[in-house]
């Protein structure tokens, strides 16, 4: 079970944008430069995040992307679902209805217990990501990134943010 | 984030095999017939489950597959990992080390907080599947499958098990 690599990009973008002053934005090209990822691929994910109401676009000469809500109100789950979709991880094709024991569909009135068990695991995963906010992740990054990288980031943001 | 459809097949196979008497087995072709899935694809997953110690093969005229352990000792997580691998769902390419703030690798002494948050979600998912056994799932299926399907299954097993 794997998520797309766009999830890592999307989360890092949101955490970087959480460090901007309220009225500032970063253009897509600068976000790609900062994260060292291909601008064309990142653009697709930025649009998905904007479509999901996680980011918003600022038009004009000072244009770019910024968070659409305060960092404490954006969850990791929102970012994952914007980029990777919200389909359950378990693919249930209802194979219990096939083969020599098959009954008419109307007879299967109860959810398959196997499907139910996997849904519970999915819910545990989602619940964990739903209680993790961009504000939490931002505080984590302040703590785990090497100090010289933080200092370079601060200077880069001063030069690049609009 | 999606699992392969082989996971559904693998779990259903294990639950069906849990209903066999201790010394009985079912050939791969019968397992494919029961679940209405392509024999060639199912064979690949049966081999993966045998390789992981979830199933074992019985040789000879009465040969086939059976559970390698009691159903209460096989977890849903073992089946998932046998079929879908045990890689974490979150793909971390350490993009924090790229771009204009990059530092030498040795400077990144702490795990990225973003990676850590996703690992916690992964662990919640795994923990849920690790506490669900094939015995639990078997009891669930007895409860959720229509009664006529259960009766047909009992007759089919009597004719097909070796």
List the helices and strands and how they pair.
The structure is a homodimer of 162-residue chains.
Chain A: H1 6-17, H2 28-35, H3 39-51, E1 55-58, E2 64-67, H4 76-84, H5 113-130, H6 134-144, H7 147-160
Antiparallel strand pairs in A: 1-2
Could you characterize what this model shows?
Chain A is mainly alpha-helical and about 160 residues long. Helices cover about 50% and strands about 5% of the residues of chain A. Chain A has seven helices and two strands, in the order H-H-H-E-E-H-H-H-H. The first copy, chain A, has helices spanning about 5-15, 30-35, 40-50, 75-85, 115-130, 135-145, 145-160; strands at about 55-60, 65. Chain A has a two-stranded antiparallel sheet. In chain A, a hairpin with a 5-residue loop joins strand 1 (about 55-60) and strand 2. At the A-B interface, helix 1, helix 2, helix 4, helix 5 and helix 6 of A face helix 1, helix 2, helix 4, helix 5 and helix 6 of B.
């Amino acid at each position: 079970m794997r998520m797309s690599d766009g999830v890592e990009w999307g989360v890092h973008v949101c955490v970087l944008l959480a460090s901007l002053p309220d009225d500032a934005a970063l253009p897509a090209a600068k976000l790609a430069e900062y994260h060292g990822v291909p601008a064309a691929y990142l653009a697709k994910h930025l649009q998905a995040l904007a479509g999901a109401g996680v980011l918003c676009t600022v038009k004009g000469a000072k244009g770019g992307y910024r968070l659409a809500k305060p960092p404490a109100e954006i969850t990791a789950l929102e970012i994952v679902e914007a980029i990777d979709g919200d389909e359950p991880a378990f693919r249930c094709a209802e194979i219990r209805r096939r083969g020599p024991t098959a009954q008419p569909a109307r007879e299967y009135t109860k959810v398959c217990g196997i499907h139910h068990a996997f849904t519970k695991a999915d819910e545990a995963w989602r619940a964990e990501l739903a209680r993790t906010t961009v504000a939490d992740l931002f505080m984590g990054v302040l703590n785990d990134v090497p100090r010289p990288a933080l200092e370079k980031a601060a200077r880069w943001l001063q030069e690049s943010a609009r």
